[in-house]
């Protein structure tokens, strides 16, 4: 029975925006290296960087009907996250749907399938992460669900979870963990800024991270090229 | 016996140019969702958008000899369409061939194989849709055919058919259908402009397309989250 | 036993720089069409074009520890070349490692695996050719080797070999052949410049390359379309 | 912090065994077409068909240490389900681990990665569904988790969930739904047996399923070939 | 408008059967190396070898409704050939449809998509060539066409064309060419039998095919290892 | 300049045969986890297991001419190893070439490309490891090299190196290391036999391999399910 869950709780938009100070790689590390979507999801233009609350949506293969249903559930600050119930590279999403989402304040689209009208989407500055770019259109015959938990590109997403996406990929932060993960990001960034300065000054990671004794334990051998040949 | 067909009839260049007002997604829809090449064909730079008459060419794997033969058959307004007789990602085409085609008024290349010298092709603004970018060169030992009907990236192409290509893919319009498809494109565009305005004003597709009753027929259920948990 | 070879001989930086006058396709042809890495390696931004001496490095899947070891072996004018011991798309390399390499005068990275922080790497103008862009991080538990001969993306690389990389791919020139290959490149370029001028003037490759007699030998048949239908 | 959850509740082995009367396609339909793992998971030999309770296990790329930890948590009637934290085709599992699992009454292995020693596993009649067969070994340096919920090949698996696997794929049935899904399977099978007999007797699905009126509504047109040409 | 063409002319079943004396590789060569489907189509069991007349059928992604329509058009000696209008690996076809086709004397299925119930299909000895094996089911909402010309796995198929399929792949022989291609097969086989005997006696292909002079023309050099090191 | 090296030194056939006591996974471990070809190489039938000396051969894409040249260089106990100069899935090798190799005592073929006539090859019991099975034939126009060092499926192979292949993959053992690697295999096997007996008796790898203290160091936590929920 196709179902729409309405009025889902979300991450506060102001909290979500603070994540824009960090790349996906940093957020992923800061929450313990979980929640990353597959590497196959690519932004249609670079650079792109968004953070917001997930509205989840499943679609039948070659059928984008449920996306029209999901649009109505979207609020300012949301990110629409779409996954087909079986793999499909068709162009589910084009410029008309983007106009509609943009008019509602939606920040972008994550879709484990194809999109089209990408030149127009790029001009509109509506960011999309997708598996494919393909002009092949879709029908409107079969319904999926909106705002049920789902697996998208290998990651579990609940409605209202925080999504962060940039040129390196897409990460899901469970709603309840968002504040804690933000603190971890801030702490990492402070530490990395210091490290970056030392590396730029020519210091070696081997020394900064104190790796030399562990290398020795592992039995690493250094030999000069002239002694080998 | 390798064969070249000369002096093939074409779509009039002025007719072809009128298609530049439409994306491939629109043309594909307007001719009944047929004739699209596989999603694997990608432009070497974006944005790119061309329309013109096909000169068809088959090549042996790893052998670009027949492309040299095909160049001679190209006229202003043509698009060269190349397919290998078995899958091959070699760089069949580079800047010298592009210079030659450009000097003859050719609008671009569609090739279900690889190309190279892509930085130069991009500077030259010579658009290419290909399966791969690869510096690996080719030999000149085996001949294919020029201007016979062929299957390229899953679509049947006759010489003189209209080709339209943009960032979303490549579509083939049979020569005899080109005028009718253009009319359909114009009609779709008029309709979509109105819809776009309504969506931009915040109306929902569910309402514009009158989808709600069908949703109901399908038994769509809306439930509030607070009633679910 | 994990091993680092130090003080490897290199191609002279001034010799390497002279290769920047040529694309990878030209260098590949000029050394007899060998030494090209697989087409799957792509630059994270375009255009990009570097030439330098290889520092080679193998890494365990999902483990970038050895890259930290390799950094210390890098000198101005080097290019770091990394390959995992089994296929892995994780993000082995990010902005901190790039800062460290850039502070040592390294020209870029070739990695048959994934990278991350690509928006920052692009801003920094640190060029990378990789199989993937992926935020997934790595651990530091298992050591590989630095500056042993290795196969990267299907090509054999010895430490100190010349690497040339551009938008079309990556080619390896054995250190001992670098001078000879450069001469071949120069000779090809002189010849191609003349050909380019003739093609731009509208001459046909069929005539410039004297192909017509060979086409005749192969039995190529020309027929006018009006005589076929 | 790597974690092992012990003494997880399971589906009763006798309940699991009753699922062996049904193929994965039937179970998948019977629970509403959800819970199917990706098509990339293949059995190492055919035919193979198992049903049992999941012990879940995440592993680092190229590192099978956690599988050794998971073995101890397995009981008779269990199926071990393993997923790497990033994609990896290495051979995580071979004949020694299979001997160990078989001695504990484990029914098979589902692994979204590679296995090896497959000739021996086939002789032993220890069924495995995997993404790859590859002799490349793994290390024992990094720990994952045992019996935490995880995503395997696109499906969410909780420890103790029912797994059914056959030549067509792998499906997950949540522990709490197992009895209800079994009833649906039985009902479907009874119905299909009757249909099979009618089809074998030459009746058409179009008639048995009463499809003709819907075909007419959709505007399906029948034309004789002789009237078309 | 979805369309079914009825009463299509076919290759005579007795002519089709004579092709079973030849492998697909031989038939492909004998008709001039055209008409081969992509390498991605694989038999669900080996060995398998069939020849018969094509009934063609297009299906929407994830929707097998049209296959039910096509069944009624099948006659003894036919082979059903199915292609989705955009790429889809769902299991379009299972044991019930196979029972129905087998009861009508159909020799097998070629499908550029997925199938399921493969253990049962194998037991039934109903051969299928497919892109995928996957338990994911399909819906019945959207209609395609039956017995229109179509492109399947890169090859153009007209209804009534001869299909030959074996462990190496699938080839299409246009109906009008079937007799001539059969004669070529017979001639090739006679010649190959003699060659096979000579090779089995230890003669070299280089001598049998008289290749030595062309090798010399190409400048092939033989050097002893002792003269190289 | 295409080149054939003749009379290459080999691994003694009696030494090669002793490797048949071990799987590829064992040999790979025993020589320090190097020399494995990519996972994409699959045997055309299972089980299959061979060991012998490499005759190396490069071929142009879609051109098997050089294989005919290589046949002459093969001796009893050899394994022919073929790699195309750019990726190609055509059927380079069929039953005639297999008859010829078998008549010379060759043990099998490793080819990083396609083969055909696989039903006949299986009947003949001529084992082949390949990237693809495809009926598409090849031409004889361009020459490669025989018995030069080459990279095949990511591994460096010198003529005369030992090749071991089984259902899990293909491994290359440098000729000079063959005796030492055999000794390591024997030592591993002795040790594994004991371990296998203990595992079959129900002992845990955690205890046999003494892993428990290292698990504790890594901070592994055990929690009962009832204390978690």
What does this structure look like?
The structure is a homohexamer of 229-residue chains. By secondary structure, chain A is of the alpha/beta class. Chain A has nine helices and eleven strands. In chain A, the strands form two sheets. A seven-stranded mixed sheet of chain A has the order 2-6-5-4-3-9-10. In chain A, strand 3, helix 3 and strand 4 form a beta-alpha-beta unit.
The residue-averaged pLDDT of chain A reads: 95
Taken from the alpha-carbon principal axes, the silhouette of chain A is elongated
Unreliable spans of chain A are none
Helix percentage range of chain A: 25-40%
How do the SSEs of chain A run, as a string of H and E? EHHEEHEHEHEEEEEHHHEH
Tell me the structural class of chain A.
alpha/beta
The helix tally of chain A amounts to 9
Radius of gyration of chain A: 21 Å
Strand residues, percent of chain A: 15-25%
Biggest pleated sheet of chain A? 7 strands, mixed
User: What distance lies between the first and last C-alpha atoms of chain A, to the nearest angstrom?
Assistant: 72 Å
Oligomer classification: homohexamer
Question: Hey, which two chains have the biggest interface?
Answer: A-C, 40 and 42 residues
Lateral strand order in the biggest sheet of chain A: 2-6-5-4-3-9-10
Give me a quick take on this structure.
Chain A has 229 residues and is of the alpha/beta class. In chain A, 33% of the residues lie in helices and 25% in strands.
Task: Set down the secondary structure blueprint.
6 copies of one chain form a homohexamer.
Chain A: E1 3-6, H1 13-18, H2 24-30, E2 42-43, E3 50-59, H3 65-73, E4 78-84, H4 95-103, E5 108-115, H5 118-124, E6 128-133, E7 150-152, E8 155-157, E9 162-166, E10 169-173, H6 178-200, H7 205-208, H8 212-217, E11 221-224, H9 225-228
Parallel strand pairs in A: 3-4, 4-5, 5-6
Antiparallel strand pairs in A: 2-6, 3-9, 7-8, 9-10
């Amino acid at each position: 029975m196709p179902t729409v869950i309405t009025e889902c709780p979300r991450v506060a938009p102001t909290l979500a925006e603070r994540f824009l100070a960090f790349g996906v790689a940093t957020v992923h590390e800061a929450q313990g290296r979980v929640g990353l979507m597959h590497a196959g999801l690519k932004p249609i233009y670079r650079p792109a960087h968004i953070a917001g609350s997930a509205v989840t949506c499943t679609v039948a293969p070659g059928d984008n009907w449920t996306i029209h249903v999901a649009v109505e559930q979207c609020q300012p600050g949301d990110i629409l996250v779409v996954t087909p119930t079986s793999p499909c590279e068709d162009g589910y999403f084009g410029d008309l749907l983007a106009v509609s989402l943009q008019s509602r304040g939606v920040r972008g689209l994550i879709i484990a399938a194809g999109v089209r009208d990408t030149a127009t989407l790029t001009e509109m500055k509506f960011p999309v992460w997708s598996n494919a770019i393909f002009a092949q259109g879709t029908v409107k015959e079969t319904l999926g669900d909106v705002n049920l938990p789902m697996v998208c590109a290998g990651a579990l997403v609940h409605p209202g979870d925080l999504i962060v996406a940039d040129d390196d990929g897409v990460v899901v932060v469970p709603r309840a963990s968002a504040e804690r993960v933000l603190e971890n990001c801030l702490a990492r960034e402070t530490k990395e800024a210091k490290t970056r300065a030392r590396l730029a000054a020519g210091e070696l990671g081997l020394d900064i991270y104190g790796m030399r004794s562990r290398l020795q334990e592992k039995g690493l051998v250094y030999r000069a090229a002239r002694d080998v040949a």
